[in-house]
Design goal:
Chain lengths: 116, 113
């Protein structure tokens, strides 16, 4: 079955540690995205990538980093510079990309990061 | 003021009722309007999307856009317990060469058997 796999599902880390969230898709989509979801707020875009070896900052990129070395993979690193990293992180992909208004996103099941 | 406002709920209704979920927005440049459903501890999944004003129907679901009032709605007929989820609205407008997608915070819906 085609889809997006995020791992780990739950992650606990101490303050000051970097952590990397994995996102893999087998949908053959060109565009991939990372969102953060917090209670009472809409999804906020962290980074997105429309092609391999290229990515763009979203609205809240500070304290995060990404890479896009393969079409299928778009890992997110939450660095120690992120002031409030505890959140639910969602990875998504799309066929059309951000240049299309009808950009339908397919999401993974999410990774919940808790920083102690 | 948020660009997209959505009542967080929870909205609790009996099985079989008609449900109305709504979002208001402030930016008249929004052109595409979407509804996603998110079950607990899962990622959102697309239910429907519409372009500009008007209605769109898909089975028990109807999406309605009123651009003059800056208001969109999702109606669910014959609601089922399996419809219990959080419903997110999202809308996009052109920003430079790309489209920017803005999300509502979601409305939690509970269908009581």
């Amino acid at each position: 079955d085609g889809g997006i796999t995020q791992s780990p599902k739950y992650l606990f880390r101490k303050e000051g540690q970097n952590v990397t969230l994995s996102c893999e898709q087998n949908l053959n989509h060109d565009a991939m995205y990372w969102y953060r979801q917090d209670p009472g707020q809409g999804l906020r875009l962290i980074y997105y990538s429309q092609i391999v070896n290229d990515f763009q900052k979203g609205d809240i990129a500070e304290g995060y980093s990404v890479s896009r070395e393969k079409k299928e993979s778009f890992p997110l690193t939450v660095t120690s510079a992120q002031k409030n990293p505890t959140a639910f992180y969602l990875c998504a992909s799309s066929r059309q990309g951000a240049s299309s208004g009808a950009n339908v996103l397919t999401f993974g099941a999410g990774s919940r990061l808790t920083v102690l | 003021q948020k660009e997209v406002e959505q009542d967080p709920g929870p909205l609790s209704v009996p099985e079989g009722a008609i449900v109305s979920l709504n979002c208001t927005y402030s930016n008249s440049a929004f052109q595409y309007f979407m509804w996603y459903r998110q079950y607990s501890r899962k990622g959102p999944e697309l239910l429907m999307y519409t372009y500009s004003s008007g209605n769109k129907e898909d089975g028990r679901f109807t999406a309605q856009v009123d651009k003059s009032s800056k208001y969109i709605s999702l109606f669910i007929r014959d609601s089922q317990p399996s419809d219990s989820a959080t419903y997110l609205c999202a809308m996009s407008h052109r920003r430079g060469s790309n489209y920017q997608l803005i999300w509502g915070a979601g409305t939690k819906l509970i269908i009581k058997p």
